[in-house]
Automatic annotation (TrEMBL):
This is HTH araC/xylS-type domain-containing protein. It comes from Hoyosella subflava (strain DSM 45089 / JCM 17490 / NBRC 109087 / DQS3-9A1) (Amycolicicoccus subflavus). Residues 1-45 form the HTH araC/xylS-type domain. GO terms for molecular function: DNA-binding transcription factor activity; sequence-specific DNA binding. It comes from the Bacteria.
Amino acid sequence: MLAINPAEPIDWGDLAGRAGYFDQAHFGHEFRAFTRLMPTRYGTSQAEERPWAK
């Protein structure tokens, strides 16, 4: 998650593959279990919390 730059569009499918997941759905399920947020909401929240990253 630290590799996510909220200032840039996020390709969640690509990120899931690079993280070793078979598909985006499996990644999304585990991401939500870990963060309690859907991946897209996490990206939005990080952009709001880190305005300097824009």
